[in-house]
Amino acid sequence: MNTRRWQIDPGGRSLPSLRNDPAVGEAAAMLRAGKLVAFPTETVYGLGADASDDLAVRSIFRAKDRPSDNPLIVHVAEESVLYDWIRKMPETGRRLASAFWPGPLTLVLEHRGTLASSVTAGLSTVGVRVPSHPVARALLFQAGVPVAAPSANRSGKPSPTSAEHVWGDLAGRIHGLLDGGPSGVGVESTVVDVTGPTPLLLRPGGITLDRLQQVTPTVEVDPGLQGGAVVPRSPGVKYRHYAPRGEMWVVAGSGEAQVKRVQALADEGTAAGYKVGILTTEERRKRYRADWVLPCGRRSDPASVARNLYRVLRCFDELGAEWIVAEGFEGKGLYDSVMNRLSKAADGRLIDTNTNLSP
What we know:
With about 350 residues, this protein is α/β, with parallel strands linked by helices. The protein has 11 helices and 16 strands.
């Protein structure tokens, strides 16, 4: 399969201008024709298909090698479009949508049964969101269909935050790629289930828990995020995700104890004959020795860490790292999202220097 690639610079352009861009028009026509198109969002790049076309949606799973029981998020251009596909919008959902849409928030709602069954993995609910990236919104307006779009990567790999990441994973497996530059947030959307009496945070992401609770104080964290066994109502809660090829460990904690444990674990990998990488921050990059020591941002700036996390994990793959030791991060907000992704990437291999717990 030949993959068509368009480059489009959204900088300073109005939404009407982007909607009329020939590249957006071609990509939208592909979606309406049941084809797969990758496109930028403010979180990561998504791989889109018409969410009402079951054959098109199934091709997402084939292109990504994604398990079919992992539900997809549906993207729409504006909230008003949703009512063709969902049963109702609870008041809690209205408040959250008003505060954070367009933006990196996914709401889990009851659907009407008119979406492709492969979108919902047989569930009575579906995750929906209105992205804020101008190229994504222009594409969704022009396509005129709801677009199911998981991250545009091979299943299990770190999510793509640039068109180059998508091209490396999916060129020849999809029909089109809209290159709109790097993503801004760097981790996927926050997912909140608003179908029950208490809204539940299913996946931390670009909208932090404290910001959600400023709008709706009753938001609680789903037990599944603490390791409970639950049916996957959201992408990113069941399978190993976001993972580099090398064996990865995460060392939680703070201060000198954390630094010493990271180095000791890296030295174990070196002694065993592995090519070793350490994931750290700018503040500590000179404290470590390994084949590669890569910073993913500044510890004092959680947004920079979230924005660069997947890029650095992909760098380890490109370099051939076989044993990766990552510093963990303490604190709430975006660091909750970062630690969620690191734990998934390490498949639960977490050492906590505060408690001396390890798998």
